[in-house]
Amino acid sequence: MRLLRRAWRRLAGTFSGASRESELAEELEAHLQMQAAEFIEAGMTPEAARRAAALKFGAMEEVKESYREQREIPLIGTLVRDVRLAARSLRATPGFTLVAVATLAFGIGLTTAFFSLVDQLLLWSVPAREAHRLARITGGYSRAYPFFIAYRDLNRFFDGVLASSDNLGVSLRPAGSRGVEIGKAEYVSGDYFRVLGIGAAAGRVIAPSDDTSGGPPAVVLSYRYWQQRFGGDPRVIGQRFAVNTYPLVIVGVAEKGFGGLFNSDEPDVLMPLAMYPVTNPGAAREWKMAHIGWLTCVARLKPGVSIQQAQAFMPDLWARAVEKVNDRGVNFVVKIHQITKDECRLVPAARDALFIRNETFLDPLKALAAVSVLVLLLTCANVANLLLVRASQRWKQTAVRLALGATRGRLIRQFLTESLLLTAAGSAIGLGVAYAGVRSLAQVEFFGARFHFHLSLFVLASCAGITLLTTVLFGLIPALRATRIRLAGSMNEQGASNETLSRSLLSRFLIASQIALSLVLLVAASLFGRTLRNLQNVDLGFQRKNIAIFQIDPASVGYSGQRLRIFYDQLLDRTRTLPGVRSAAVAAMTPISNTLRGLMVTNTNEGQPPLSMVYNSVSSGYFSTMGIPLLAGRDFRREDEPDVTPAGWGGKKDESRVCIVDRSLARKQFGTVNVVGRRFCFPGEDCSAGKGREVIGVVKDVHHSGITEPDPDATIYEPSWSNGAEARALAVRFDGSAAPVIASIRRVLQEQDPNVPIMRVRLMEEYINTRLARERLIAYLASFFGVLALGLAALGLSGVLASVVAQRTREIGIRIALGARRGDVVRMVLRFSVVPVVAGLVIGVAVAFCWGIFLGSLFYGVDTFDLVSVSQSVAVLLAAALLAAAIPARRATQVDPMVALRCE
Amino acid sequence: MKEKQDVWQGTLSLMILKTLDVMGPQHGYGLARRIEQTSEDLLAINQGSLYPVLLKLEQDGAIDSEWGVSDNNRRAKFYRITRAGRKQLAQEFLEWQQTAGVMTRFFTLSAAQAPEIPGGDK
């Protein structure tokens, strides 16, 4: 009990130093005064009394020391005192401390944020059991429904094949809710969940028996949607749930953490493929067509079978699938062209699925990782240099301490404590920076990716560990050296000169590496910046400014045939009269929309490669609305559109059918651009005289899916209604500001039929900018880190030069006294920095060159080794280096020779 | 060095406790003077060495301290023995008597019959 109490009081005493210390001083002073007063009464003079009292008391400091020892727990007490001392000595040099802690905080924080992101992106894999056994089947036809069925039924070497659609916009209406909500649906094959190995969090998942034409109207909710919309209520199972107004029943919830096959784009609901035609009546005709590729087929390899082994069977599977599908168009294409190379190939799906639509995604990640490593290295180099500078400034202080009897161990302990304190402060603030960094990075829309990033503590610990190693190592150098210096020599002289030399060599090396690193980053920043600028200015084939796109789907709420056409005609008529609207048109799809409807077509010249072309049907006024220039011929007119009767599409007689082709199609199909008046046929169609479609116009190529499409797909445009009803986009070109126009069009739609879902509204220019999110992110980060690196390098250089000036104050003073002019002094200081700066630039240029090759694929419109970028960066760095050197150089010229000589 | 201090601290703390028990609350200087007087200046202590002992006693809970005003109007810290301190005093007084008794007997004995130590090389 007594022991416990004593331990507690000592522990308390350990941490309440300052107040206890003054209390003790007061108590002892009172003691001395009372004793002195007594001696004075006995007849002594005040001075003698005071002296006698002190003598009688004994050694004051010794008493205090043993009092303190009694007060504290010995080890912790020393530690606390060490930390206090270190903190005091760091406070004494606020400039150094601030810069060092800020450097560490940013270095650790940003690297951690970065690596957390990269780590989680790289390690992400398809949410499935044994994802390494999943392989995606590539190709154009392999994305079509009949081929999926063929693969599933014919193969003997997979443990199942699944198919799933991309996430499609749908309207959702839970039981009892008023009005529709817009959501995303993934249509999946019956054994999708079995092949992936994913179970249900509640109820059941989709089974093969659901995916039949007479199957139950089943819908499965994603866990996230279940939580967000229904608060995880299990009673929703069995409830009705309408998708695109078609009544379905919720049968279950997919297991937690499963967000569909495409993590970048989690679905709200999953439905069997068999529900596709009933929930999308507009596409009921096409979804099973052999040339409509809209699915992703993924196969599960049998255990122990590699992708390469399975690949050997694929050509045979493809041949038998073609035979089974037995489609006229496909047979025709295959007979002439033997498409097997790109068709029916297996690629690993575990990582790939995420990047299905953008396989170059990994390269920027690697670049980001490289950048963050560089920044961490730069941080370490800079802190190391700062510590070296500090050590050289404390040269004499250390020597004095040693002379006063400080032991080697005591000195090492103190320097170590300082390093630890610096790193601890840096890491603590770095944690905050990292947290903020992760949060802001997670908000950048990476391809609409909704990754749930979190701070990786392991990464944080690693970064803090590396910097700790640096600070400890470089923090100890002065302590280790100090204990070897000749005491008398260094107190009299400016330290042993060879020590100074080797230390300054290390400093110079660190400066050179910092210059090199920041040059690399600056070059990269410049290249990425120009890439972004080039991408923003790519000619997409249309005018991106002042275009709004409304994605609406009246077919999903029951419009069809003539009613649908009237709906669109009315909508167009009313929209065109709205104030602010310059023109409007409807189209099956709009440029850069990622809703490609690919069509495999061949030109009839045998021996030429098959043409993959894009099919679009548009109303009159589409080209002028989008700003797509007409190169020859004319635009569509209302009369070109086929008749639509309540019974269905009447179609048009071949002689009166017309089409507009783009320049690529004209070139590839006819070998020339002006093909107005020629006739165009799809493969397998009768193309004798007077049949097929007459080409009435040629337009410029547009980019359909990507901004950097090297070779835009050939495109054929037909008038609206030529190919049945489709989910349509209303394109509007407006004047002035977008908001009022969008609001009034919404009002028109609302008045016309409030039930028609508006899937989304996009401003074309804004959307293109979001598509450049990756490039923008990289460019911003690269310039941010480039500037950061530049700042660090300048700071490092300035600090080292400052210490050189401080060390040589005497020498400079003597030189000035002997008649050296300002210019000579400045040159002397600058000379020190010339070699490391030039060496750093040379190394940096070389590294930038290699890095450029590595990152080449990320650049657009600039050379990997771009002379302009390199020379700009070199110029900026040189300017920064000069500026950094100017301050210490100026200080050197202001050395007063008399003061410099006397201060020794 | 350390052991010697321990013994010294032990006796000093006993003297402090006894003085506080008899005289009531005292400040550090008063205690020092009192101990000097009691030992009739035979015990010439460094007054300062009193303070670490006072702290230890306080940590043990044997004494309490409080700031107050001395006879000649000076601010000083006053120490006062606690109940636990009285118990400790009684206990240690007993132990001290035993030790002192043993030591006395030992020295009386050894003076008369000091044993020869064979081959003790100096």
Topology diagram in text:
The complex is a heterodimer of chains A (904) and B (122).
Chain A: H1 2-15, H2 17-41, H3 46-57, H4 60-71, H5 74-91, H6 94-123, E1 134-137, H7 145-154, E2 158-165, E3 168-174, E4 181-188, H8 192-196, E5 200-203, E6 218-221, H9 223-230, E7 240-243, E8 246-254, E9 269-272, H10 276-279, E10 295-301, H11 307-311, H12 314-325, H13 328-337, E11 346-348, H14 362-393, H15 395-403, H16 408-443, H17 457-482, H18 487-492, H19 497-536, E12 547-552, H20 561-576, E13 581-587, E14 598-601, E15 611-618, H21 622-626, E16 630-633, E17 643-645, E18 648-651, E19 658-662, H22 663-670, E20 679-680, E21 693-699, E22 714-719, E23 728-734, H23 738-752, E24 758-763, H24 764-771, H25 773-807, H26 809-817, H27 822-855, H28 867-893, H29 897-902
Chain B: H1 2-23, E1 26-27, H2 28-38, H3 50-60, E2 63-69, E3 75-81, H4 83-112
Antiparallel strand pairs in B: 1-3, 2-3
